[in-house]
Amino acid sequence: MGYQGWFACKGDGAPINAWWHWSGANNQVPPSPGNNTIVAWPDMREYTNAYVTGYANLGNGQPATLFSSWDQQVVDTHFRWMRENNIDTAALQRFNPNGAEGPTRDAMAQKVRQAAEANGRKWYIMYDLTDWLNMQSEVKTDWLNKMSAHIASPMYARQNGKPVVGLWGFGFSEPSRPFAPGPCLDVVNWFKAQGCYVMGGVPTHWRQGINDSRPGFIDVYNAYDMISPWMVGRIKNVGEADNHYTNVTVPDQAHCNARGIDYQPCVLPGEVTARHRAHGDFMWRQFYNVIRAGCQGIYISMFDEFNEGNQIAKTAETLATVPTNSGLLALDEDGTPCSSDYYLRLTGDGGRMLKGQIALTPVRPTVPMVVVDPNPNIARGKPTTASSTNPGYPASNAVDGNPGSYWESLNGFPQWIQVDLGSTATIGRVVLKLPPQPAWGTRNQTIQVQGSTNGTTYTNFAGPTAFTFNPATGNMVTINIPSGTARYVRLNFSGNTGWPAAQLAEFEVYGTTVIGENEPPTVPGNLTLTGKTATSVSLSWSASTDNVGVVGYEVRQNGTAVAGPTGTSTTITGLTPATAYSFTVVARDAAGNTSLPSAPLNVTTDAAPNVNLARGKPTAESSHTQNLGSGNAVDGDAGSYWESANNVFPQWIQVDLGAAVTVGRIVLKLPPPSAWQTRTQTLSVQGSTNGSSFSTIVGSAGYVFNPATGNTVTITFAGTSTRYVRLNITGNTGWPAGQLSEFEVYQS
C-alpha cells in the first residue's frame, strides 16, 4: 500500500517544524475546524506521543490530539499493524525533496526502513512527480545521491531480482503534472538502465489517453514493468466498481497481458465522512473484481491518507473519539459498528484471496467488529526477567508480539527467561518461537518449563526436552502443560545446537479455559421487522444461548454480512428504495463458533418519496470532448458537466438505474452561472429494460435553459417502468454539442 508518512506537529523535533498535513493554509498553528486538511480522525490509543490540537474535546471528553510521523514509535506501530494483518509491502511516497520538506522526507525514509526491517515488511521508494517541474534531472540525482543507498536494506522490495522504484504522475492531465512524453520516457528508461523494476502510477484512463490522461503517452505507459492506474475519486459505490471492472479493468488487464506488463490495480476503502465505505462492501467488491480479472498485484490507496479519508490505518470507531466540533464521522457512520482495525483486517483478507489462500468470493469473510480472542496469549507485553542478556536483545523482545525481534542470553549454559503474568492462571500450553526467516536454520534447544505462584518456589511443568525449531514449519514449538497453575512461568535452557546461547523471539502462554470448545450457540429466533423506510430496515430477534457465552451477532443481507451488533436489534441503512431484501441472523460465541442462520425475513423497502435515482449510477454516451465525460452528469455537482463531440448531431447520454423502476419525472441542468447564457436544446427521452431495445417516452421538443431560472428544465410524463433512460439530443442553440450538468431521474 501507499504510505505517506507526512504528518508532523510543532514541537515534535522534525526539521519542518510545522503542523505538516494536519493544518490548512497556516501550518504554524494547530489544526482546528477552520484550519484543517483531514476528513477522518485517527484512533490515537496506541501512540506514545500525542500533540494537542485546536479542536474541541472528543465526544468522550478527552483532549483532541494527533500523532506525528516523525516519532519512530508511530512508524513502528504502523508497520506492526501491517505485520499483524499480513500486509506485505509499503510504497513510501517521496515528493520533490528540494525544498523545505526535503530534510524531513530524507529522515522519514530512514525511519520507514528501520520499521520495515524490524517488522519483516517490504518497502520501496515511490516518487510522486506532482509539481516537480525539474524532475527529469533532479529525480535521477536524488536516486543516485540519496535513495539508492536504501536498496541495501534486506527488506527493500525486489521484483524479478531488481529493486523496485515507483514513478507516480506521468501522463495525468492536471496542470500540476505538465510533463511531455519525451522527458517521462527518458526517466522510465533511465531507472530501468540502473537495473530497477519500475512501477508506474498512471491515470485511470491511461490506455485510451482520455479523461484524466493526456494523449500521446502510450509509449511511456508501455515502458513500465508494472502499471497501477489511480482510482481515488473515480468510484464511490459497488455499482460504479462493477462498471469500472467491465469497462476499464478487464481491457486494461488484457492490454498488459499482451505486452508482458504486470498489472497492479488500485483498491481503496472509500472516504469515511462521504459515506462511501458501506462497512467494507465497497472495498471487498474491488478486491473481488480485480482478482477475478487476473491482476498480478494490488495497490491499496492508502495506509495513512487521512487527508483524503481513504486510510486503512486504525480510525475512530465512534463519535466518542472524534472532536465534537469537527463535523467528521467515524467508522460506524452507517449504523454498523466497525472496529478501528477493520480495514487493516479486510486488506489482509484481500491479500489472502489474491494469493489463493482463500477462495475467490464476492462475500467478504471479515466481520466489521473484532471477536474477542477467547484464549489470548496472556504473556503478551508482561514483565520479563532473564539470567542474562546479550546487549541489544533484551528479554522484553520475547513478549512484544514481534517474531522478528528476539531475546538472546550471554554465551554459555544454563540460562533462563521468565514472564510475570500479573496474577495466577491455569496454564494449558506454552508456544515458543524463533524468527521465521530461513536464515535461522534448524536447531534444537533443550528447555524445561517451570511455574511458580510466588516467584520463589517453582514446580516442574514439562521437560527438560530437546525441542526442534525448524524454519520450514515456522520455527515454532508448542509445549502442552497437562496441569499447571502459576503466576510466574520460567523456561530453563541447557543447550542450543544452533548458537552457544539461549534464544527466543516469542514466549507465549495460554490458559485452558476454552481450548477445544466447539459448541455453537443456539439459533437466534423470532427475527422481526420493527420498522423500515425507503433506505433502511430495523430488525430485532430473540437472544441466543451458549455454554461459553454469546459475544455478538452477525446480520446477513442476501447472504452478505452487513452488521455485527452485540445486542438483539439493529438498523441496516444505505438500502435501495422499493427493493426486496432477505435477512438472516447468526450468533457468535466467545470461542468464535457461530450458530446456524435464523429463519429468513423478506422485506421490501418503501418507495423513495423524492430521491434522484440517477445519482452516482453508471452512464454511457455517444461521445464526449476533453475530460467532460458523462459521469459528470450524475455526480451531484452542478458545476461539472458532460459535453459531446462538437458539430456532430445527433448525440445521446444514458443512465443505468440498476433495475427497472417506474419513473415519471426528469430534471436536466446546466451550470447555473450567468456565463452559461440562455440556450435551447432539442431532445427526446427514451427508455429500455434491457439496454438494447429502446422506446420513446417523450417525443423530441425544444427545452429552454435560462440562467435566470437556474438553468434547469423539468420534464414530466406518465409513469413508465424502465431501467435505462436515454436522452437523444439533436440541437443546441448555445453550442454545437450536447451539454448537460445534471441528469436527474425521479419516480412517478
Automatic annotation (TrEMBL):
One of its GO terms (molecular function) is hydrolase activity, acting on glycosyl bonds. Keywords: Carbohydrate metabolism, Glycosidase, Hydrolase, Polysaccharide degradation. GO terms for biological process: polysaccharide catabolic process. Gene3D superfamilies: Galactose-binding domain-like, Glycosidases, Immunoglobulins. Residues 375-394, 616-635 are annotated as: Disordered. Residues 523-608 form the Fibronectin type-III domain. PROSITE patterns: FA58C_3, FN3. Residues 371-512, 594-748 form the F5/8 type C domain. The keyword Hydrolase applies. Residues 620-630 have a biased composition (Polar residues). This is Xylosidase.
